[in-house]
Predict the structure.
Amino acid sequence: MSQGASSAAGGRPPVNPWLIAVAVVVPTFMEILDTTIANVALRYIAGGLSAANIDSEWVITSYLAANATVLPISGWISAHLGRRNYFLLSIAVFTISSALCGLATNLTELILFRILQGFAGGGLQPSSQAILLDSFPAEKQGVAQTLFGVAALIGPIVGPTLGGYLTDNYSWRWIFYINVPVGALAFLASYALLDDPPYLKVEREKLKKKPLNFDFIGLGLLAVVMASWEVTLSKGQEWNWWGDPRWRIPILIILFAVCLIALIIREFTTANPVVNFRPLGDRNFVVCCLIIFCLYGALYAASTSLPSLLQTLFHYEAFHSGLVMSPSGVFAVFTMIAVSVLMTKGVDSRWLIGGGLLVSAAGQYWMSLATLDVSPWFIVWPRVVMIIGLSMTFSPLNVAAFKYIPRNLRGAAVGLFSLLRNEGGSAGTSVAQTMQERRQQFHLSRLDDHLTPYDKPVRAFLDQMNTFFLNLTGDPALAKQRAYNALDALRQQQASSLAYFDVFFLTAVMTAVLVVFVFWMKPSRAEGGVPAGE
């Protein structure tokens, strides 16, 4: 039964599902935005709190680790606490912790408040998606998932732009304060509009009659798995991965693997698992999880590499680099609307997913062909093509993933799907950073093979620079030194640019390969029928 219908059955007036959609999508957008909005402000945070730049990265890592710990258990919490109650609690705590983040007086306080914010935010994504699944009839699930897609896809795109604008024009604290009025309004709207569907109320009443039997062992294993995973991804390159002289990364990787195996065994053998892995028995769900993990890896790899490229090599300010990326968000919205119409007309999700993957791969490959001499528009259009492709896949993936999932497993499935979507972004960011730094060293080595005194272009460049600096300084020795420094700067610049373009090429290849997995999926069309929550 839909949320509106269930409200009527419980004595409350019926509610239009579109109003419910707006009420739940807004706080979800706010939470997803916070996964990227702080990225551009880290050095300002470090300066404002008198902390080292490298330590400020824990502002991101702590949030992601806390968020990832809650996502897979959100279904369990919803079932026991009530989905409406859990959603309202998540909004309230997220809003309060956002205000506390803005008021933090040192880095330790900020990290603690970010952990609290991450725990609260972890309940927003799966709860809102489950509410949408129960509020719209089966034939409109494409439209419902499009609304969720606006939040889940546009959030990471506009996050760096909004964060750069607020930081440049106001203060880094406003990237947290901005959540307060939005969260307050979202809480009031959700409180007035939401109600749990009958099947959830029946399930909750059954659970109340049983002893709690909370799986503390499973929760502990999950916390260790997600914390070790996030710290490994965040600090791996800084600590030199397997070459870490203090063995931090190898220990974290071993701890992750051992605890993950123990968690899976524990959750499949206990009567009351805190993380339900049973949705992974559905073929469509597994394939969609794999695709969304890799797609968000590509999205975050490109969304973190491109601003860095524009700011370091094209010398754009944070806000202007965000403006170059922003047009893709407009195209994303229109694309998702068009896709929702096609899905409503019965187009198989597999065709849209496959086409979207190819379009996205083409955009990323186009970006890999850029040089340092291109205009801003050459950056804009490949980015637009990439995001159009991602927008084509997002709603169909969400429909196909839950098409064959029994409704009693829907909460667990949504939590796992949200977790893999978020962790794909974390993995993509880490891989992009590692690849950029290591490929830069590779290209420096390759360029050195050609930068010899016997190379005519090199001699011509040095002669030209030597003449320029000699006229400028009148000192032959200083002029010669500056000429070599100019050559080295050009060498570093070209090697760095080639490394960034390699990242885009890698994401293009990875996205194209995903098309193969689409053929393993079962047909997934939006069909007419009663609302999903009945």
Summary: The radius of gyration is 25 Å. The first helix runs from residue 3 to 9. Residues 231 and 261 are 19 Å apart (CA to CA). Confidence is low (pLDDT under 50) at residues 1-11, 528-534.
